[in-house]
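Exercise 7.
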Amino acid sequence: MKNIFYMLIASLMLGGCYSNTIESFSTFTFQLPILINSTYVNRNVPSVAADFSNLYKYSDYKDNQDRIKKARLLQFNGWIDTLVLEGGQPFDPLGNDDIEFEYVSYKLIFAKPKYGNKFSQDPNDFEIDTSIEEFEIARLNNVKVKDFYRSPLHIVDIPPDMSEKISQQLISSPYFYIATEYSKLKGQAGDSYHFPLIDARIDITIRLEVELY
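Solution. The predicted structure, written as C-alpha cells, is:
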C-alpha cells in the first residue's frame, strides 16, 4: 500500500513529464526537455549569438524547486531547421547546395537577474554571471548542413565531470544562455558570409531528482 501511495503522490505532482521513475521511497526522478528556438535574421558568419532560457518557465521545475535535490544536464542535441543562403535562395538539402562549417560550438553560460525578478522570461532582465565558469557542452567539427538539416539525430552526451559542475549551479541558478558559435564556412571567400536567415533548434535534457518529503 505504501508503494502505491508514493507512486500516486509522484504522479500527481509531476504529471506530464516525458519519463519518470521511482528510485526510492523518498525521491522521484524525471527528465525535463528544454527546447530552444535559435532564430536569427541577417546573420553573418563567423559569429557568436546567445539564446536565453529560464527553467522557471516550466511548471515541473517551478512547482518542485524547493524539493529539487539534483539537477543534472544529460544530453545536447542541435540541428538547423531553415536556412536561407546569400542571395536569398532557401537551402536545398536534396540539391547541389554544399555548405559546411569548420565547426559549430555550443556553450552554456549562466545568467543572473539584473533587477531581482528571477521568474522573468525576458532576457533583458538578466546578464551574464561572470562569477561562474562557462561550459562548452558541445563542439561539432566539419558540420555539413545537409547532415544537420531538420535531423535531430546528433545527440551529444555531456561528460560526467562537466555535468556535475553544471548540476551544482542549476539548482541555485536555473537561468542561462546557450551561446552558439558558427565558424567560417569551408572554402569561404572573404571575411564573412551572410545568411538572411538561420533558424536552428537546440534541445537539452535535464534530469531532476526531487525529494518527496
